[in-house]
Design a protein that fits this description.
CATH class of the largest domain: Alpha Beta
Largest sheet: 12 strands, mixed
Strand content: 25-35%
Radius of gyration: 22 Å
Shape: elongated
CATH architecture of the largest domain: Alpha-Beta Complex
Order of helices and strands: HHHHHEEEEHEHEEEHEEEEHH
Length: 345
């Protein structure tokens, strides 16, 4: 049995011939990922079969992914803690003039689709596979997103990814949703989660917080600046197109706070403040001309020591694994990453 047969053994496409064809497609493309489709195909018959497979309207993306996702879940079993890392990629087809059904992207005059993925990564940084994926197109500009419920907004993709991860990794496995600043949504931070479901999100908004349930509301930045530095550690920064790899000294602090419900939230009266832990890491010494590294992370996990704070930073560092897998897209640029060794669990 080949690796592709083993990985896709649970695939259900409603026809064994389609399932066998999928295995051949994965074997061909996987053996030569840098090649075009014609060059990667083993022969002319395989190339024709590949095009017929892709044009078959009875074959759905969910079916194609079913076997691989099942294998991913099996690899997660028994690992204790799984990081469910989410990210959104823009698929830019602006140069393909004959494409239909595309929507607008962020760039002016760009056309394409959006792909939101959730991958499973072990607590020590080993990629285990895909857990969930969703693709959509924007129908038009000027949509009043704030007037719609979270389930109808694009931002609902983050909660959808969390719910799918919870569903697939139920039981004794602890699943930690990890995402960047686009996932800084009060609906996600205050969402009622199943047992063993946590999150680690990089904050985007300057939220109002209080340190005790009966305390006064203040800006988070003000609260963080009032904290004592918890300690220092060294972070290895990866190479970027503008800078070489380097090691930098970071200081870190943490605080437990209550988050205020946003004043403009449509359901403000129904929602309650939520208690979270905030971890703040800042580059101690910045190089001339370099943008200093600063992370403000919010988590539902307990953070009461520098070891636990460092663990949060190590786990957030692994978020760049999902960007590495999407790096073939020239429009997808991630911030500086590193290879810091995580502390023992």
């Amino acid at each position: 049995m080949s690796w592709a047969e083993a990985e896709l053994e649970g695939t259900e496409l409603g026809d064994k011939r389609r399932e066998r064809r999928l295995v051949k497609i994965v074997e061909d493309l996987g053996s030569s990922p840098e090649s075009s489709v014609p060059l990667a195909s083993r022969d002319r018959a395989a190339l024709q079969g590949m095009y017929e497979f892709w044009s078959n309207r009875r074959i759905r993306a969910e079916g194609i992914l079913s076997g691989h996702i099942g294998s991913t879940v099996n690899r997660c079993d028994g690992r204790g803690v799984i990081l469910a890392i989410q990210d959104t990629t823009e698929l830019d087809y602006s140069g393909h003039r004959n494409k239909r059904g595309m929507g607008y992207l962020r760039g002016k005059g760009t056309q394409g689709a959006l792909l939101h993925s959730t991958i499973a990564v072990s607590w020590d940084g080993k990629p285990l596979g895909l857990l969930h994926q969703r693709m959509w197109v924007r129908e038009g500009r000027g949509t009043k997103e704030h007037r719609r419920g979270i389930g109808e907004k694009e931002s609902g993709r983050w909660i959808e990814g969390m719910e799918r991860s919870e569903e697939l990794l139920a039981g004794s496995t602890e699943v930690v949703t990890v995402a960047d600043r686009d996932a800084d949504l009060y609906e996600l931070l205050s969402r009622e989660r199943r047992e063993n479901s946590e999150y680690l999100i990089r904050l985007r908004h300057e939220r109002r917080v209080k340190e005790t349930e009966e305390g006064e509301w203040r800006r988070l930045g003000e609260v963080l600046r009032g904290q004592n530095r918890g300690g220092y550690f060294v972070l290895e920064l990866g190479r970027t197109p503008r800078a070489e790899a380097r090691a930098t000294r970071m200081w870190v602090t943490w605080v437990s706070v209550w988050l205020e419900v946003p004043s403009q939230h449509a359901r403000r009266e129904e929602m309650k403040p939520v208690r979270v832990q905030v971890v703040w890491a800042v580059e101690a010494e910045q190089w001339v001309g370099e943008e200093g590294v600063e992370w403000i992370l919010v988590t539902s996990l307990p953070v009461e020591s520098i070891e636990e704070a460092q663990r949060m930073l190590a786990w957030y560092r692994f978020r760049w694994l999902i960007e590495v897998n999407q790096s073939q897209y020239p429009y997808k640029r991630g911030r500086r990453g590193g290879t810091w060794e995580p502390p023992a669990k």
